[in-house]
Design goal:
alpha+beta; Glutathione S-transferase Yfyf (Class Pi), Chain A, domain 2
Amino acid sequence: PILYSYFRSSCSWRVRIALALKGITYNQVPVNLLKDGGQQHSAEYKTLNPMQQVPTLKIDGITLSQSLAIIHYLEETRPIPRLLPQDPKKRAQVRMISDHVVSSIQPLQNLSILERVGEKKLEWAQHYIKSGFQALEQILQHTAGRYCVGDEVSMADLCLVPQVFNAERYKVDLAPYPTIIRINKALLELEAFQVSHPSRQPDTPAELRA
């Protein structure tokens, strides 16, 4: 497998966690979203990912983009350890939390959006992360055990941790979200979340390395 990734991309981080949890060895090709006007816009990369985004995963003779589509494929072809619960209600909760992050929070503070917002980008990012986290905190109070849904790591956790990293990067006060803080801390103790961390990637700048 080949993963086209950017060290600080939360979408890429989700997939790196999934690959680590499932013990899948892969090669990583960095795509710098800032250098050369954004390497994701190159003609070569556009043939791999017409949306000009990361991540892209080449695996089993196919090329996949969109982090949740990739994670679902890994789940269906390499089901151990599972990232979606067997119980239909818990499975629905995992998908709900995942979608909450990947559809309602992360896109609104994505690099391409913030570039268009301009000088108010910090205020913009903080606003949408806070409003999303207020809802997420409420949801997690009903679903969480040790992790987002019960006591097993799920796809929801793969979405939560990178989003908390983004919140910290944009200087969001996390004190109002104790459940999010607690779950994030527990997940960051796990090896798969550590090896996939933005501070430990091949393209991580020296000054940001762990």
